[in-house]
User: Which sequence fits this backbone?
C-alpha cells in the first residue's frame, strides 16, 4: 500500500505572506497525521521562501511519521539536513525564480555531484531519493548514484487533460520509469500536480511506495479542514489500489 506524504510548504507560504506566526506548519503536520498521513514532506529552499529552519527543527521533534526533506544538492542546505537528520531526503532541482519545482533533477548531467550528496546522507542513515522526470536517460543515471528511491515527476501527466493522447503517453513514460526503478531494487515514489481526480492511475503503478502531494490537499483543506482533506486523499489512494482494475 502506497504511503501518502503530505507536503505542508503551502501552509508556510501563507504564513510568510504576512511575516507572522500563523498558520504554523507544525500544527499542519499534527492535523495531517491525524488524517492518516504516512509522512510529512517539506522543502527547505535556499532562499527560505516558505519553510524556515525553526520549522524543520520543531518538525523533527514532533512528527511521529516519516519526515521527508526536499532540498537542492547544495552545501548549505545539505549541512542543515545532516544536522536535523530527517528520515529521508529527496534531492530536487531549484531555481530561485520558479513558482514551484518545475522539472526533475538533471542527474545525467551531474551524476558525481549528486552521488556525493546521496552518499553523505546515507552514511548518516538517512534514506535518499532523487526527484527526476520519467526519462530513461535520467533513470539510468539515477540508478548509479546509490539513491534508495526515485521520485518520478508527475507534473506533465497531471497537466495533460484526461482522456487525451498526451495523458496516455505521459502515463506510459511513468510506467516505464517505474518498472526500471523497481527492477533495479529502488523504492518507487511519485509526486507533483497530483489531485483527487488524477491520483488513481499513478497510485496503481506496480509497487508504488510513496506519493508526495501538497497543493491539492492544502487547497481542499481551506474548505473542509486539513484532517478531512488528508483523509479523503488517503481514501482515493486506497480505493485506487483496492478497487476494480481500471486502466487509463
Ligand atoms: N514532490 C516534489 C519533489 C515537489 O517538489 C513537490 C512540490 O513541492 C511535490 C512533490 C508536491 O507537489 P504538489 O504541491 O503539486 O502536490
Assistant:
Amino acid at each position: 500500500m502506497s504511503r501518502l506524504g503530505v507536503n505542508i510548504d503551502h501552509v508556510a507560504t501563507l504564513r510568510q505572506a504576512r511575516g507572522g506566526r500563523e498558520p504554523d506548519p507544525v500544527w499542519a503536520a499534527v492535523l495531517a497525521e491525524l488524517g492518516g498521513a504516512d509522512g510529512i514532506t517539506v522543502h527547505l529552499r535556499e532562499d527560505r521562501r516558505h519553510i524556515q529552519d525553526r520549522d524543520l527543527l520543531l518538525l523533527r521533534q514532533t512528527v511521529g511519521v516519516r519526515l521527508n526533506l526536499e532540498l537542492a544538492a547544495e552545501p548549505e542546505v545539505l549541512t542543515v539536513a545532516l544536522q536535523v537528520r530527517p528520515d529521508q531526503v529527496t534531492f530536487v532541482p531549484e531555481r530561485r525564480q520558479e513558482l514551484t519545482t518545475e522539472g526533475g533533477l538533471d542527474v545525467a548531467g551531474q551524476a558525481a555531484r549528486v552521488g556525493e550528496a546521496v552518499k553523505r546522507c546515507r552514511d548518516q542513515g538517512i534514506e535518499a531519493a532523487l526527484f527526476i522526470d520519467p526519462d530513461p536517460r535520467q533513470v539510468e543515471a539515477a540508478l548509479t548514484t546509490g539513491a534508495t528511491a526515485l521520485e518520478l515527476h508527475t507534473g506533465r501527466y497531471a497537466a495533460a487533460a484526461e482522456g487525451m493522447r498526451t495523458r496516455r503517453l505521459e502515463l506510459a513514460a511513468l510506467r516505464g520509469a517505474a518498472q526500471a526503478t523497481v527492477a533495479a531494487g529502488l523504492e518507487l515514489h511519485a509526486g507533483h500536480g497530483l489531485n483527487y481526480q488524477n491520483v488513481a492511475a499513478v497510485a496503481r503503478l506496480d509497487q508504488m511506495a510513496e506519493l508526495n502531494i501538497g497543493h491539492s490537499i492544502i487547497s481542499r483543506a481551506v474548505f473542509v479542514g486539513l484532517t478531512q482533506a488528508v483523509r479523503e486523499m488517503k481514501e482515493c489512494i486506497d480505493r485506487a489500489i483496492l478497487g476494480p482494475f481500471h486502466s487509463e
Residues 74 and 194 are 27 Å apart (CA to CA).
